[in-house]
Write a structure and sequence with these properties.
Bifunctional diguanylate cyclase/phosphodiesterase; binds ligand C2E; alpha/beta; binds magnesium ion
Length: about 280
């Protein structure tokens, strides 16, 4: 900041930096106020079973209904939550809403599952599994109806705690899913270490060009086979057209998500999708 102020030619940049940090400060204050409230709303995206054509469940994706700035997407506020110690409160709020909603679906006769994205912070808290158990009990939802999605980078630090938390979740009956599979380093070592994972989600980047790039196609096909050898369900992320969906079905992929199947949407818009299940 000082260096920029010293250099006379950086006035414009300095002003942008100021605006940027003012916006950040404003969002931080507002997020602290809203993080545990109904201002955090969930959109749900369907997970389609490719063998039966039935919707098996929904992934909960958080948005922030900001009073002045409208609907904000997770890439805007997740880093702010992470940096200000608000992540656990956010996850609790998301879990609570998602589990309550899923229990309601079950009560209406739709035995679908719900998936929630965890953060690295969550996996470092020994009490995280117990918090989930309490919410499941409170809403009378069976643990197997809940999937917790994690990414490989979340397992980089504090191995011992992370492994214990994931083992505990699995022994409770909660499904653990490896999100964005294939985008990180040492993906295969994580697959070996994460012996309790029930599902992997092949990253959108492989799905996007699998019809045009033979290397992506080979990676998708062999990952499906590898996962099946390990007894793991494969979900393709980011399916945007019918041809990709048909090809994934041919290759034996278990489930798919993507704009072609259904965009993330508020609860009120989900009714027609239930009709398909
Ligand atoms: P993710 O868990 O990998 O979720 C998939 C993202 O891809 C979502 O973006 C979704 O809207 C988008 N998407 C789905 N289908 C398609 C498609 O066909 N094409 C394209 N281009 N995009 C598609 P979103 O909702 O912006 O979420 C971004 C990321 O934010 C998520 O990636 C997840 O890592 C994180 N996130 C979302 N909700 C939560 C939450 O409640 N807690 C935590 N800790 N992280 C969350
Ligand atoms: Mg996810
Ligand atoms: Mg993903
Ligand atoms: Mg992603």
């Amino acid at each position: 900041y000082n260096a920029k102020r010293a250099g006379g030619g950086h006035v414009v940049y300095r002003r942008n930096d100021d605006q940027e940090s003012r916006l950040r400060l404003e969002l931080t204050t507002a997020l602290r106020r809203d993080v545990a409230t109904a201002a955090m709303i969930l959109h749900y995206q369907p997970k389609l079973d490719l063998r039966t054509g039935v919707i098996r469940g929904f992934e909960a994706l958080v948005r922030w209904q900001h009073p002045e700035r409208g609907l904000l997407m997770p890439d805007v506020f997740l880093p702010i939550a992470e940096q200000n110690g608000l992540m656990s409160a956010l996850t609790q709020n998301v879990l609570s809403q998602a589990i309550r909603e899923c229990a309601r679906w079950h009560a209406e006769g739709n035995r679908v599952s719900v998936a929630v994205n965890a953060s690295a912070t969550d996996l470092r808290f020994e009490c995280f599994p117990q918090q989930i158990l309490d919410l499941l009990d409170a809403h009378d939802l069976p643990a197997k109806a809940l999937t917790v999605e994690i990414t490989e980078t979340m397992m980089l630090t504090d191995w011992a705690t992370t492994d214990r938390v994931l083992d505990r979740l699995t022994s409770m009956g909660v499904r653990v899913s490896i999100d964005d599979y294939g985008t990180h380093h040492s993906t295969l070592s994580y697959l070996r270490r994460l012996h309790t994972a029930a599902e992997l989600k092949l990253d959108r980047s492989f799905i996007a060009d699998m019809l045009t790039a033979p290397r992506s196609a080979a990676i998708v096909r062999s990952t499906i086979d590898l996962a099946h050898d390990l007894g793991i369900t494969v979900v393709a992320e980011g399916v945007e057209d019918a041809e990709t969906l048909d090809t994934l079905r041919e290759w034996g992929c278990d489930q798919a998500q993507g704009y072609h199947i259904g965009r993330p949407a508020p609860i009120a818009a989900l009714k027609p999708q239930f009709a398909k299940s």
